[in-house]
Every structure is written in structure tokens, then in C-alpha cells.
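Request: Show me your protein:
***
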Amino acid sequence: MGPDFDTETQGKKLAVTTKRHRWGMDLDPLLRGQMSIKGRYILERCNDPNSIAGGDKIHHLFGLEFLWRF
């Protein structure tokens, strides 16, 4: 549970590169002792100045999971 961050660079140093930055947050509260719900949101930014991987992009990802323990 909590925030996270990840970054990556593709390409050679001092040459044309692409960069990707991801920020995420998840929450996993327990409901009624046997049920829980988990939510996750990720914001991903791709910096691609020379359109090597298709240009600059922003992605919003959301996941939701329900668990019921017997």
C-alpha cells in the first residue's frame, strides 16, 4: 500500500534517448474481515523527442481487484 516511482532511459549516453517515468499509488483496505478491495492507479509519461518509439505519450492505467477469503 502506498506510492511508488520508476524511471527508465533507453538509448546510448549522449545520443538520442527515450525516457519513461511512472508514478503509481495503490490502496488495499480490508473489509469485514474476509473481503478486501485493491485499487491501483499508474500515470506513465513517455518522453520521445525524435519519435523513435512513436513520440511523446501519456498513459493512465487503473486496476481494481476484489478478494473474498473463505
